[in-house]
Each structure stands twice: as structure tokens, then as C-alpha cells.
User: Fold this.
Amino acid sequence: MNNKDITAVITSFRSEKKIINCVKSLGRDINVIVIENSNDKDLKFQLEKEYSNLKCILSNENLGYAKGNNLGLSIVKTRYALIINPDAVVQHGAIDNFFSTAKKIKDFAIISPYIQENVKNSHEKIAKGISQVKNVKGFAMFLNLEQFKEVGFFDENFFIYFEEIDLCRRLIKKNKKIFLDTSIKINHDGGKSHEESINYEMEKSRNWHWMWSSFYFHKKHYGYLFAIIKIFPKFISSILKTIFYKFSRNKEKKDIYYCRFKGILNSILLKKSWYRPKIY
Assistant:
């Protein structure tokens, strides 16, 4: 195994400042595919000029996390792929440690780096070293592509949120193995991959999609009635807070909670995840 056996896939949207650090941390020895969910030709030119090992594909529309990553994975030719967010930075030795773990556990589906977020979301006590887990965070995932032929990649009904949890669940159902390795270090800012000037529109989008994806995920895996029961308190809360912030004249808060309400409502009505941030 060597660096020619892995391709990094980065799905980004208006991440000009963050993605440079991410690509730089990956180095020049591994293949990199960037799916830019906008028509940023300047970014494409800048990245491909600086890095001969990088190919930047402009989607010309905001595909989201699931569909963007699937597009990148569809053109990967190597044995392994690294899904990584543009606001993540690979620490020294992380790629080598991945290969070291891959040699020890040849039938893995996903190996994830260790950060505190992983422990919080796996609901398991993580010992130092390599631990088998049920799910991992999607900001950085080492994929053994051979293990995905039966399962497929991300469910493209998700735009953002829950898609990696859904993927992990489908893998586990097919008896595939997911691991967390504390020797692999990747820093992640979390929710800061885009430029600051679009924070407000992105916050509305995040709230809409978090609610839509939450209902869709629970409906998909547990049924419609369970999803209704699960989401109902948040549905009522979003209505009450929308009304409260409307009368207190806090437009930003009102718009955010209205987006939460609309995300839940659209998912309950079985409508597609159509909302996109209004950025020009």
C-alpha cells in the first residue's frame, strides 16, 4: 500500500478560504478530487494550477453533501477513498496511520479518525487505539471501496445531515465493519466550511435541512409513525418560537425557526429536500 492507493474526495460550497488549508494538508502525493457545488471557475483554476494531483469539478448547482460525494466517488479509480470536509485539516502521519490500520484489518468498510465529536455521537466508550463502532462522523471517513459494492454510497435524498449515519446503518445491516482509530488525527472546525459573508443564509439552510433529514432518517429506518412521534416536540417548538420572534421583532431568529418548521413540514408531507440557500 502507498499513497497511490487512495483518493481524497472533497465536496465544497463557497469554501475558498478553508479548502486551501485542507488540500495543503493532504500533500501532493495522493489523488484529490474536489466537487465544487458552485460555478467558481477561479477556485478551479487556482487549485488545479497549484496542485497537479488535483482535479476540480464544477457541478454548476448545489448538489449537497450526499450527491456531491457520490459524484466524486463515481470517478475514483483507487482502492481506497478519503471523504473529507473542506474545513478539515489532516495532521502529520494520518495517511500513514490509515494504511497501517488497513493492513491490520483488511475487511474494514470505514475507518474514522478520533476526535471528541466521535465519542459523543457513537454512544460508546472509546478506548485508545482501534475500536469497532456503529457509526462515525462524516467530516472524514476512510472508505474501503470493495466493501461498498453491495451497499452503495450515500442516499441522495439527503442534501445535508444524517447521510453518514444512514450509510453506517446500512453497512452494519450487511455485517460490514466500521472502526475508529485514535492514532489518526484530523482537525475539524465544524460548520465553518463556507465564507463568513453567507453565514445567515447558510444558517437558515442548515436548520431547514437538519429538520428535514431528521424526519426522513427516522421514517426510513423506523417508520412514518415513529418519525412523527420523534419530531413532534421540535415541530411544536419551531412554531412557537417563530411566533415569539415575530412579535419580538427579531427577524433573523424568526426566519431561522420558520425554516426549521418548513423543513419538518416538507418532510412530513413527503416532499423532496428542495431548499437551497439564497446566495448569488
In short: Residues 116-123 have pLDDT under 50 and may be disordered. The CA atoms of residues 7 and 31 lie 5 Å apart. The chain has nine helices and ten strands.
